[in-house]
Write a structure and sequence with these properties.
Blueprint (H helix, E strand, L loop, with lengths): L4 E5 L3 H13 L3 E5 L2 H10 L4 E5 L7 H10 L7 E6 L4 H9 L4 E4 L4 H49 L5 E3 L2 E8 L7 E7 L5 E8 L3 H21 L3 H15 L6 E9 L4 E7 L5 E3 L6 E2 L3 E2 L17 E5 L5 E5 L15 H9 L1 E2 L3 H16 L8 E8 L2
Parallel strand pairs: 1-2, 1-3, 3-4, 4-5
Antiparallel strand pairs: 6-7, 7-18, 8-9, 9-10, 10-11, 11-15, 12-14, 12-16, 13-17, 16-18
């Protein structure tokens, strides 16, 4: 089996013959040509791995032959040795400057040429292996990209349809995953008694794993909402589900609430999540004074026996609730200025009446604060308005 294909280009038949003899004895397949024009014709029949070409030849000299070979995308990676009778380093530099990979000085010893050929083929083998691996990597990256895009579309399908409404409320959201797919999730579910269950959660980490666990969080929430009207029971059940079915280092923060329009109130549990802002009269638009809801609480999934605390807050007609994940709050500019809850609260103090415009304005204001840097974490914003 041939070790590779070598094209020998020289206008002197004795040179072609002696190089062919040694190359064939070393088990290389040999092509021969008397000048660059004939060399290109031979290459059209069979592409060589390596070319050994004389510099001075009629019709097409070696330097022009080298330029043409190295100038074509389909042949530029062929290893090119230029043979020259010129002495001195300047001739070698000149040959390398036109694209040759190596230079051989005349007169030469056949053993020297064969040593260079063997060395070149070791490089050629490594280059072929790198190309093969790069091809495999590209195929793998394209497959992963396709799977990520599919996962992102599936995750978007888990979010409520927008704009949305439930008894006594209307809502909208903005979801901006940092890596195309992330660990943020939220859900709004009407309950049989006319109240509404609300959940926003942020799973630790990013990517597919976080997205998978966020789907688990949503499923757990919907499961517990079907059997209880109590946010405290939801928190306890969801915590047990996550603690039993995820790894120790995986957890989620969450805000869980039951909005009760008939009582102008909402019962809620804060589980390690940024507490929402309640904006009295905020759904009517204009300058308002946002209020940060009380509550801290443990994150979900750390331990099955963690305690949680239920709280209640007013939620009157025309009030607005602004919920978000920490990616919208924990924003720090290059000058180390930190947005935080106070900064976001200032942005919430004067929002448009329309919930869609209000959500867009908040995102734009935080982006302007953070600019020109992009968000470094998943961002989810939910605006909930209490309507008549």
């Amino acid at each position: 089996m041939s070790k590779g294909v070598v094209l020998v280009v020289d206008d002197e038949p004795p040179i072609r013959d002696i190089l062919s003899f040694y190359l064939k004895r070393a088990e290389y397949q040999v092509l021969v040509a008397e000048n660059g024009v004939r060399g290109l014709e031979e290459m059209a029949k069979l592409s060589p791995d390596l070319i050994i070409s004389d510099l001075r030849m009629p019709e097409m000299a070696g330097d022009e032959f080298c330029r043409q070979v190295k100038g074509e995308p389909s042949t530029r990676d062929i290893y090119f040795m230029l043979v020259s009778a010129l002495d001195g380093s300047m001739s070698k530099i000149g040959g390398l400057n036109i694209g040759a990979d190596d230079m051989i000085s005349k007169p030469f010893h056949a053993q020297e040429v064969m040593a260079k050929v063997d060395s070149a083929f070791r490089l050629i083998a490594m280059q072929k292996e790198i190309k093969r691996q790069n091809t495999e990597l590209t195929v793998f990256q394209e497959r992963v990209k396709g799977e990520m895009e599919l996962a992102a579309r599936l995750q978007m399908g888990l979010l409520p349809t927008l704009p949305g409404s439930a008894p006594g409320i209307r809502y909208t959201h903005r979801y901006l995953p940092a890596d195309g797919i992330g660990g943020d999730i939220y859900a709004i579910t009407p309950l049989p008694d006319g109240s509404t269950a609300l959940m926003i959660a942020d799973v630790s980490g990013h990517g597919v794993t976080a997205a998978l666990i966020s789907a688990m969080v949503k499923t757990s929430f919907e499961s517990h909402v079907r059997v209880s009207l109590d946010p405290l029971a939801w928190a306890v059940g969801m915590n047990q589900d996550l603690a039993r079915n995820t790894l120790a280092e995986q957890f989620a923060t969450a805000f869980l609430a039951r909005i009760r329009p008939e009582e102008d109130a909402m019962d809620y549990v804060v589980a390690g999540h940024p507490a929402p802002f309640r904006i009295p009269g905020g759904s009517a638009g204009g300058a308002r004074k946002p209020e940060l809801l009380e509550g801290k609480g443990f994150m979900l999934g750390i331990d099955v026996d963690l305690p949680f605390t239920a709280q209640r807050a007013p939620f009157h007609l025309w009030d607005r609730l602004v919920l978000c994940t920490d990616g919208l709050v924990e924003v720090e500019r290059e000058d180390r200025t930190y947005l935080g809850e106070e900064g976001l609260m200032r942005f919430c103090a004067d929002l448009p009446e329309d919930a869609e415009r209000a959500a867009d304005q908040l995102i734009d204001q935080v982006r302007a604060f953070n600019g020109p840097a992009a968000f470094g974490d998943d961002v989810t914003l939910v605006v909930v308005d209490r309507m008549g």
